[in-house]
Amino acid sequence: MSTDSIDDTQRQALTEFYRTELAPLASRRLLDARVAPKADPAASSYYKKREWRRLEARDFELKLGDAAQVGATLDAFWAGTAFAGMGTKLAALSEKFPEVQQREDVSAFIYEML
Questions:
Q1: Residues 6+ apart with CB under 8 A from 86
Q2: Is 4 helix (H, G, I), strand (E, B) or coil?
Q3: Long-range contacts of 80-88 (CB under 8 A, 24+ apart)
Q4: What DSSP letter does each residue of 51-94 carry, written as one string?
Q5: Which of 31, 55, 71, 114 could form a disulfide with 91 if both were Cys (CB 3.0 to 4.6 A apart)?
Q6: Can you tell me the distance from the alpha carbon of 8 to that of 76, in angstroms, rounded to the nearest whole number?
């Protein structure tokens, strides 16, 4: 989305979301693939046996019917992480952008190439 396709209220909402929700995460080390995890010399294995159960349809379902469901789904997925609680806030932010306008000079296929 180009910033020329949004109004001042939307721009302000995005800026505020970035300032209050995302910028504080910049100082936290969320995941750094360049640093190997610390090894436990006493461990005989790092394999974790998980309880086996048959997968059900609900294991593959995401509730994305409306902004409230999207927020709840993201909150459940991000529980216990640095993003905990952000799903609801992100869903609320999305409601400030009811109409998505695709620019004519950008092909829809560009998103599939990324």
A1: 21, 74, 75, 78
A2: helix
A3: 82/25, 82/28, 82/30, 83/25, 86/21
A4: ------GGGG----SSHHHHHHHHHHHHTTSTTTTHHHHHHHHH
A5: 71
A6: 32
Phi-psi region of 85 (alpha: psi -120 to 50; beta: other; left: phi over 0): left
Instruction: Determine the Cα–Cα distance for residues 21 and 19; give it in Å rounded to an integer.
Output: 6
CA-closest candidate to residue 22, choices 68, 73, 90: 90
Q: What is the pLDDT of residues 14-45, one digit of tens each?
A: 999 999 999 988 877 665 555 556 677 787 87
Tokens at 74, concatenated: 């993201």
pTM above 0.90, yes or no: no
**DSSP secondary structure code for residue 39 in this structure:** P
Q: What is the DSSP letter of 11?
A: H
